[in-house]
Amino acid sequence: MLVNKQSRLQITIQNIIFYIFFLAIIGLLAWLSLRYSYQADWSASNRNSLSNASTSLLNVIEGPVQIAAYASEDENLRRQIQTIIKLYQRKKSNISFSFINPETEPDKTRQQGISVNGELVIEYEGRRENIKEISEQAITNALQRVVRGGDRWIVFLEGHGERRPFGQANHDLQGWVAQLENKGFNIQTINLINSPRLPDNTTVLVLAGAQVAMLPGETRLIENYIKQGGNVLWLADTDSHQHFETISELLDLELQDGTIIDPNTRQLLNVDNLSIIVANYFRHSITEKLQNASVFPQALSIEMGDTRSWKAEPFLESLEGSWLETGEIDEALELNTNRDITGPLVLGVALHRPLSDLDINNADDETKENQQQRVVVVGDGDFLSNQFLGNGGNLNLGLSILNWLSNDDTFIAIPAKIAPDLQLSLSRTAQILIAFGFLLVLPAILIGTGTLIWFKRRNQ
């Protein structure tokens, strides 16, 4: 190429234009980086991102949320708090956050009831929650409580050998109830013999496997509660459902005598075949977001009548090949087509009807028009017990049922937060191979490669 004065001028102009465009692109990228951000979390189980449970909750929060951290000037503590709050702010832009030093503002700290350095105060639409633990699970649960609003009282019937909501025995419900309390539900028990009236603020009445029959007066109280639009969760165990015959008639349901048998369970769970696996859920609000199969240690079948006063929808069903065993339970269980009932069999039913269909004296017309009475009957209570709560999707199913019964449909899709398994278990052979590879094989390869390169260069 012939270089002359004109060509040098053209090259100079091209270079100037290139640098102008290059600087303009750099400036544009810098401006975009201030307005937009992108992050990728490659950690195991996305430990540095919000869980689906937290993200689902933030998606249903409409108004602004205020979070204040009462923390001293400790940089490590403030950095820890700010890191986790930023995860929430990235998902929801109208979350405001501020630090307040308890040492410089003692009056405000005392007024908010702060007792721990680093305590958080979350406010939403005039409701407030204090959090002493700085973790995603604690913050999400607190957000769920303030967003839920109002008192949700779950009342457990007692006095007849029921599963205890605060009991620690294998058959009790302490683990499930603790999760309900974290989600903002208030729990109480009632013995209708001592207090012959259900509280007016009862959101859901839980009948959890009575071992003895109720008195006629107690039965009438529960019947009147249902007739007046009360919501009920009935965990109908195989050895106690006969104590609630009048209740089943009121709901137009028949809880069939016998036990559901699933021969596939022994192979899948390595347990006796009295357990039932529910893997395919019916399409319903309760089960819409459930992904894991639920396990029911022992269940009975529910038959729905041709009811006109309720809309009854099954949502739990046993697998193909199961049957209702009406004979004796022994080791040699076999289907008797002349006596037993072949499956699949329904073991969970959700019933609802508008309050406007009921003659309720204490409810205004707007409440009747917009709300439903809801009842859930499950042919097993063991699946929510302390012993079996952690099996499959049992916990999330139990939480979804209570959210649906309390007319909090927006929270049904929010599952319980489960900690990831961060442990790597290696066999003895694998440990030896890894140690041998890193300590001997890899250094030998590097030394050999280096020696080969040196030898070739020397001979050139």
Topology order in helix (H) and strand (E) letters:
HHEHEHEEHEHEEHEHEEHEEEEEEEHEHH
Count structural domains. 2
Number of helices: 12
- Biggest sheet statistics: 7 strands, mixed
Shape: extended
- The CATH topology of the largest domain corresponds to Rossmann fold
Number of strand segments = 18
Estimated helix fraction = 25-40%
CATH superfamily of the largest domain: Class I glutamine amidotransferase (GATase) domain
Spans of at least 5 consecutive residues whose pLDDT stays below 50 are none
Second CATH tier, the architecture of the largest domain: 3-Layer(aba) Sandwich
Lateral strand order in the biggest sheet: 6-5-7-8-18-17-14
* Rg estimate, integer Å: 31 Å
How far do the termini sit from each other? Answer: 38 Å
User: Which structural class do the helices and strands define?
Assistant: alpha/beta
Give the amount of beta strand, in percent.
15-25%
Mean pLDDT reading: 83
**CATH class descriptor name of the largest domain:** Alpha Beta
